[in-house]
Design a protein that fits this description.
homodimer, 428 residues, alpha/beta, Rossmann fold, GMP Synthetase, Chain A, domain 3, 2 domains, five-stranded antiparallel beta sheet, globular, binds zinc ion
Chain lengths: 428, 428
Amino acid sequence: MYYDPVETMDRNKLEKLQLVRLKETIANAKATPFYAEQLADISPEDLTSIKDISRLPFTTKDDLRSQYPYGMLTRSLDDFVRLHASSGTTGTPTAVFYTQKDLDTWADLMARCMFACGCRKSDVLQNMSGYGLFTGGLGIHYGSERLGMLTVPAGAGNTKRQIKLIRDFNVSVLHIIPSFALYFAQKVQEEGFDVRDMPWQIALIGAEPHTEEARRKIEKMMHIKAYNSYGLSEMNGPGVAFECTYQNGMHVWEDSYIVEIINPKTGKHVEEGEIGELVMTTLTREGMPIIRYRTRDLTRFVPGQCQCGRTHRRIDRIAGRADDMMILKGVNIYPMQIEQCLMSMPEVGQNYLIELVTEGVTDQLKVKVEIKDEYFVEDMRVLQGLQKRIAKNLCNEILLTPRVELCQHDSIPKNEGKAVRVMDSRKK
Amino acid sequence: MYYDPVETMDRNKLEKLQLVRLKETIANAKATPFYAEQLADISPEDLTSIKDISRLPFTTKDDLRSQYPYGMLTRSLDDFVRLHASSGTTGTPTAVFYTQKDLDTWADLMARCMFACGCRKSDVLQNMSGYGLFTGGLGIHYGSERLGMLTVPAGAGNTKRQIKLIRDFNVSVLHIIPSFALYFAQKVQEEGFDVRDMPWQIALIGAEPHTEEARRKIEKMMHIKAYNSYGLSEMNGPGVAFECTYQNGMHVWEDSYIVEIINPKTGKHVEEGEIGELVMTTLTREGMPIIRYRTRDLTRFVPGQCQCGRTHRRIDRIAGRADDMMILKGVNIYPMQIEQCLMSMPEVGQNYLIELVTEGVTDQLKVKVEIKDEYFVEDMRVLQGLQKRIAKNLCNEILLTPRVELCQHDSIPKNEGKAVRVMDSRKK
Ligand SMILES: [Zn+2]
Ligand SMILES: [Zn+2]
């Protein structure tokens, strides 16, 4: 069951559709002051394959700032019915504008996402996120109504009322911020309810980055299936990519977005399956098209076909920000890769420290890892075995063998209560 | 210029349209468990004129509570896409459900309201009220987008950011809570801006009841035109009645609502122009029709034709709650009438006290009024003249001459800092 037939479109056809829409997007974008200049030398007919997108210039957050507020708009302000803006009161904000058609497209993409993870017209969705300028609130709200779900616009806060609404209206789908979910599960129990008796079945938890472990913990504590999503206001908001019921990567809706993954230093495409910076191009936005947007978010394509039958490629959960990337011996390393690898091992505690040091003439990667008390045994051979396993797992992930040092719980220094994750003391 | 041609429809035609829709509404309502019983003896064909509505039973807030959550719905829950609920966590709440068609109708009514007070597609509206379960936020939001205004979903709070958004995006229309408006005007000045330099022109301030004096003060302090509106979640939310640019009463959209004004004690229609309880019937709501809903809100019809050309009748600003009504010598009196009359006189201070006392065998109305220091002169003749003028003004309003007593600033006792307005010490 799919929300839109395009979800299973043959990839050749899909790429042809992308090319047609990319050409339209370029033609449309040239109506803006910004792209008129950026794309002066490019004509839509120059593109003969979707791969030619690499000939187009990138668009950055700073570009959006420089065009604030109206420089990215293809038409008169009269034609726009919504804006979302970044919320700062200092510095230059960014703003995203929507025509009525753009809102319609967005609602449909959002509905498609929710359908993919099992939501149906007969479901009742409680939107537990704040509304307002944050795209997550109204984005989910419009998508939920579009799918035909009974939508409860609860907003954030007021835990007791949230529980009452969920019980009174048989709420089956929650839109909940992951960092709030565990607190909420506990509150439900404190109010005297068993989470297994609650009517909920599905949690949409994409609003903030979180680890796979956090997801599994939410699922267990709340007795629910939790689905990750990806979105950013520059690409409308939520609704860009969403997990299907297989929970193995997020399908990006490639009929609406061209997705690339690049090396953030060189700007070139990374190898298939390699981590890099996500770059996105809108294909169905009439009011404010954005071409090759540098999201600064790190991810990789999940290889292979998804069992659900959707042909749109999947991206992995976000593995940090491009600005975090380290280069060692010519290899790109992201702290999040190391964290995810460490946290998947039951022996590893909460804290670790990544150190980059110069020893002689070469740079080295050292990883200090806190081991849980129950695993910190006196038998040196056991500890050495663990040390080797950690080093090997890390090597599999980052393609370099680090020097691993084990240490006891709470022995890594903290900064204002928060663990320091990376120390770079290399000689330049 | 009108948003919908129905706004100027000939009243005979309008009443015929109401009758047709009332019959449809009755037939539709009979699909609910509640009205199937309530209207068991009534068949749509029995009604030959819109006046026959008085043969239908009233629906009260308690009825809605007793039917919570699904007893008022005409169709399967699957067909609903939104609910708004009263926000309490104790007691039985009430809930209002909307189909997609109901949301469309509501958005159109809301857009019609905003158009009537001068909003146009080219305007930029900043929605400064909270979203969520409160119908004011999403109601205004959907109406604004429907009218084609560029909508800034700012939400409540964060005054500095509100100011930045208003300036950055040339906001011409504010949806702002009246009690926040004066604070906001002051903040704008504190931030170093002149209200006359702000881009705003129109304020929609209907979310809470307020006096005409409060409106004039907001208009002066903010250098803006402020328009009052009326709505309640049982009748969708905002969008029921709205002021046109003549600011002389709120046009009720009679193609969508039948409006009656009754004596809250007898349930009979009051004389034209007399204050009473507003009773409303939905004519265009498919999912949850409500017949003769006792709003408990007091108002009166504004007599005569409006200069704007709209034929839909106007109601006056809300003059309190039906529960506040007092009966003295067979005359209905509402504290709000007395307050409005007193507050329109420049000599009168902040506080007053209405006393109902038994003297001998008859009941009497006494009104104690605090006079501003600058008017509390030693010349008794001046004070007696003022006393007579107050009594005469009150008599014009309530059709009874009260005994007026003048007193000095701060001489009326307060209860936890709040003035006591009514003391009824009559012998039963
Ligand atoms: Zn899938
Ligand atoms: Zn008028």
